[in-house]
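Homework-ish question, so no full write-ups if that breaks the rules, but can someone show me the predicted structure for this set?
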Amino acid sequence: MKISILTLFPEMFQGPFDHSIVKRAIDKKLVEMNFVNLRDFGIGKHKVVDNKPYGGGKGMILKVDVLKNAIDKTKDKKSSLKNQRIVLLDPTGKTFNQKKAIELSNLNHLILVCGHYEGIDKRVEKFVDEKISIGDFVTTGGEIPAMLLTDAVVRLIKGVLKEGVVNKESFSPGLEYPQYTKPRRFKNLRVPKILLSGNHKKIDEWQKLQSIKNTIKSRPDLLVKRMG
Ligand SMILES: C[S@@+](CC[C@H](N)C(=O)[O-])C[C@H]1O[C@@H](n2cnc3c(N)ncnc32)[C@H](O)[C@@H]1O
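A: Not a homework solution, just the prediction itself:
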């Protein structure tokens, strides 16, 4: 899978993708990261990428012509439309979740467009497939949302994690069961006996029950959604 990130700050991505699972996925060539600097598509001698909003207001708006050119140059001409998706990171988009992460992890090419400053020209929406928000709050730019989304997607690409790991994690569809490691006892806190029993059938049943209990307690909405 290829993930292209259109940003004014490609250097921000050095670090987050140089460690752990995402780095291993890159090293194993399961994912190819492609950073596109929006400044390279800036207009004129000064490579202008933004301007003041019409109608007044504070802050600067990223220009539609700059973003459209960058998107066109980044699109893979050979990939069918079905296998390529252009996503605009935007607080007004649909909220990101595990279901969307699974959907995006099956693409050949995911293009993430990061806004910055006061935002982007509304007309950019005409040139993307969808808008995704990472939650009901505003970040300074689309870079951290793009990092978060990339991390969640990459770990779902086949071969990145050991077979079966992701199926037992939270949001698949409920929350995960509690996990413990050594020591067996810490102060007055003990590991549940069942986990030390060696009875894998019983452990499996216990984990499923705990997963349901956890979900009912902390996120009952996940169960309601599943039944609906
Ligand atoms: C400071 S924000 C602009 C916010 C905009 N003025 C508003 O009130 O909706 C700049 C950029 O950060 C990104 N961004 C901010 N919050 C986000 C969120 N919750 N999800 C995804 N992207 C976000 C978007 O790319 C946005 O264009």
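Now go work out the reasoning yourself. Hint: The two ends are 33 Å apart (CA to CA).
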